[in-house]
Amino acid sequence: HFLTNADIMGLHMIFLQESLLTTNSQNPTSALKSFELLIEIRANSSKAWYGKGKALDKLSEAQKSNEILKEAIAAYVKAIEFGSSLDDAIFKVYAVQCIERMRFIGQHLNAVPVHKALIERFNDDPYYRNQLAVTYLLANRLADAKLVLHETLLRWRRDGFALAHYGFVLKNLDKNYEAATVFLQEGIDSEAEGTNDGRFYFSLGEAMTRLGRNKEAMEVYRKGASKKLFLSEYQRSLYNVDRLKSRPFWTKKETNYVRYLDVLEQNWERIRDEGLSVLNDEGHFTDESENLRDIGDWKQFDLFTRGRKINKHCEKVPFTCKIIETFPAARFCKRGQVKFSVMHPGTHVWPHCGPTNCRIRVHLGLKVPEKTSIRVANKTRSWKEGKLLIFDDSFEHEVWHNGTTVRLVLIVDVWHPDLTELERTNLYPI
Ligand code: LMR
Ligand code: MN
């Protein structure tokens, strides 16, 4: 052989050094070539794989390509796989980068083995277990998150991050409101990093409300508002645009959509008849699914959700959908829905807030018996047949039906009038 092993090692190190420099300077394409060459010489060089990952990562950013990002992630995974002899500090950088990119692209469950490698290496630091729990939560795997958090709390009983997240899972997965309040409260009170988060205040308040502890819930909400986690104690949506005008109830005029809203009112009887025809035709309405009902029966029939038309449903109520299609702020409201909402006698909907302040919720009363009402913030109103009731559902609202026949309304979410066209186009759907 022309070169000794030591020579190859030395060359390898020089190469590596240079390639890393190239990655950092603005030329990921040539860096990528260098790293690929290196990998040909030493296929199990963790550093070379990481360098390749970084170069691809940069390329993916420049080209806005998810495919290249996936290749970058695959290279990071190799770097970690061959990384057992790396220093702790370097291994950590590699793994954290890999997890961050996986989260970014939504490959949450692929991050699990990476988290596990970190946990194994840094077994005495609860941080890495907590990060695994976050990944499970991002993947909507609440039961898995619960398991990890539980184990963490067995060893680190006062870990504020784990306490808050565990309470969050107890509330939202198990609906164990008693236990949830204890953990959420202790987590928030710890003031540990990651606990100053509207979701924990939101969940704690809701759990208290479900236990009948409304006064305490309001205190939690006030505290959340004072920490700017909520827009106000009553307006607790978490996906907001800041400058938008807020008020609980709106008039037609305040929305700036008078001429469209008039069309809804003028045609209310035909809309009602379409709504009633699907209602009588069993099995089209589906149960409210967000765990908002205390007691009773409350169902909906969606026509548009997140700005998308549900053709199958619109075929059943063509007149109503046609009207909505002439009303752009409703038709293309990506942060809302258009739907018929039917509520049966004996229903109570818990106080709750919608997710965003970007929409205004318009109700067109279609069948309105006595003893039905809605509270928004601190004012309670009722519907009238053929009339609109307009409110901002990011404010806390609560609904009662103590009458004897069904209540039917058409719900039409519209873009908040203060949003620009550009914002309406660019805001991601909710
Ligand atoms: C709500 O938006 O939560 C309710 O007002 C819906 C309804 O049917 O009353
Ligand atoms: Mn609501």
Question: Can you describe what's shown?
Answer:
- With 430 residues, this protein is an alpha+beta fold.
- It has two domains: 5-226, Serine Threonine Protein Phosphatase 5, Tetratricopeptide repeat, CATH 1.25.40; 249-426, Jelly Rolls (Sandwich), CATH 2.60.120.330.
- It has 19 helices and 13 strands.
- The strands form two sheets. Strands 1, 2, 4, 5, 6, 8, 11 and 13 form an eight-stranded antiparallel beta sheet that branches. A five-stranded antiparallel beta sheet has the order 3-7-12-9-10.
- It starts with a helix and ends with a helix.
- The mean pLDDT is 94.
- Bound molecules: (2S)-2-hydroxybutanedioic acid and manganese (II) ion.
- Manganese (II) ion is lined by residues 352, 354, 393, 397.
Describe the secondary structure blueprint for this structure.
Elements: H1 5-24, H2 28-41, H3 46-63, H4 66-81, H5 88-105, H6 112-121, H7 126-138, H8 142-155, H9 160-174, H10 177-190, H11 198-210, H12 214-226, E1 249-250, H13 252-255, H14 258-266, H15 268-280, E2 286-287, E3 293-295, E4 298-305, E5 308-309, H16 311-314, H17 318-325, H18 328-331, E6 337-343, E7 347-352, E8 359-367, E9 372-376, E10 379-381, E11 388-391, E12 397-401, E13 407-415, H19 421-426
Antiparallel strand pairs: 1-11, 2-4, 3-7, 4-5, 4-6, 6-13, 7-12, 8-11, 8-13, 9-10, 9-12
Helix pairs in contact: 1-2, 1-3, 2-3, 3-4, 4-5, 5-6, 6-7, 7-8, 8-9, 9-10, 9-11, 10-11, 11-12
